[in-house]
Structure to design on (179 residues):
């Protein structure tokens, strides 16, 4: 199965693009579990993410991905993955990330990472907190991919340009798989 992960800083259009690509290819997509988890936590307790949330978030993301993988035929679109959680954990907690997350995050289980650039408009919400650090975060995300040696392409431009580039990349993966 070809697994494509949208990866990058907050508010860079990952969810929008994941939905568009899944609709275009008539396949499953995996939403970002962390968003649902943290929105619920905020609604119930008015609390943001804490270290003790990392493992439940990771487990929830993996569970969603496994379920969607069972329903997808030959292509799965992932709104995020554990490598993103690893990056954010290390950034927000001074290098700390649970070993279980590091181990799982650094397995290369994806055909391609589509790294979303920060040239989209910032959309504030309760979970987003770094509108002025987007370029820095992009560089951190890119450096992680390079350090891991994972295949990636950078998506820039407006929604249509990003979508068209992503479709071109995925079409090539599908074509090479069928050969």
């Amino acid at each position: 199965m070809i697994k494509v992960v949208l990866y990058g800083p907050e508010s860079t259009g990952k969810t929008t693009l994941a939905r568009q690509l899944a609709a275009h290819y008539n396949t499953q997509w995996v939403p970002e579990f962390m968003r649902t988890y943290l929105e619920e936590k905020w609604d119930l307790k008015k609390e943001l993410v804490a270290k003790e949330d990392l493992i439940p978030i990771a487990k929830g993301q993996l569970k969603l991905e496994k379920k969607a993988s069972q329903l997808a035929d030959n292509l799965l679109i992932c709104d995020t993955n554990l490598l993103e959680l690893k990056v954010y954990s290390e950034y927000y907690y001074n290098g700390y990330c649970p070993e279980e997350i590091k181990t799982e995050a650094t397995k290369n289980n994806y055909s391609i990472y589509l790294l979303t650039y920060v040239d989209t408009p910032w959309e504030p919400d309760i979970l987003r907190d770094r509108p002025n650090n987007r370029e820095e975060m992009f560089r951190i995300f890119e450096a992680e991919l390079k350090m891991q040696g994972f295949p990636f392409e950078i998506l820039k431009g407006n929604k249509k340009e990003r979508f068209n580039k992503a479709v071109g990349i995925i079409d090539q993966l599908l074509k090479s798989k069928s050969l």
Q: What stands out?
A: Residues 2-178 form a domain with the Rossmann fold fold (CATH 3.40.50.300). The first strand starts at residue 2 and ends at 7. The mean pLDDT is 92. The first helix runs from residue 14 to 25.
